[in-house]
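Box 3.1 A note on notation
Throughout this textbook, protein chains are presented in two layers. The first layer is the amino acid sequence; the second is a token string describing backbone geometry. Keep the layers aligned when reading.
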Amino acid sequence: MSYHRRNFRLYSLGKETPTLKAKKHFGQHFLTSETTATTIVAGLGDISTQDVLEVGPGMGIITQFMLSAAKRFRAVEIDPEAATYLDEHFKNIELIKADFLKVDLRDYYSEQFSLIGNFPYNISSQIVFKIIENTDLVERWVGMFQLEMGIRLVAQPKDKKDYGILSVLTPFYYKVEKVMTLGPEAFNPPPRVNSIVVKATRVNHQWKCDPKLLKRVVKTSFGMRRKTLSNGLATIIPKEILNTHQYATLRPENLTHLQFEELTAFIEQHVSD
């Protein structure tokens, strides 16, 4: 542990020649603050009892605090140069050299694990969707996001322009909380936006409708967010039927996640595939 921390600190102070350049097409912005890294790791709680997977470790500023502390630690890295860097600097790392979005997590995990990462901003929403798809495995997660994305995760109907698909779907699966915000200066290269760290803990929601149908209803609704629900959902349920529901004349941005569940239960009762 001390070796890895000391090794990175020398790099971050400029006493080593940089060997890894951030690549725009991978959405890389390397975190440079060890203090921030420890705060991110702390969001998972006691990791000595957890299997942990890190997404996009880059140069390992978060990795260094996980290797010897987690019950078992793995990392998934798509960038071949970053993977080489990690292999050279962290001799005991279990590295999955692949695109996280294409990794079948069940090939590596049969029991619950936690997930952490400074998520590439260009695929951060896709990462959250993947986590939701594997919610039975991912018990908790902590992630760095573009500020706008983080706001979406915790948005409510009153936050109209920020409220969307993930705002509705996420609370069915996880309780999301803000940990901290950061400016561009915390990264190399600095992004053009501010960033936010959030932590999420799985919830045990008692479903009142088919979760798959709910996702379809939510995605279809926000795909036509300027239309009323009776018009936007016409491909799922005939307008004349949905018009009998109290939410028919509302727009998707007006409904809470539980009201979407109520609406989906109504649709489920009146429509059969």
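Residues 1-18 have pLDDT under 50 and may be disordered. The chain has eleven helices and nine strands.
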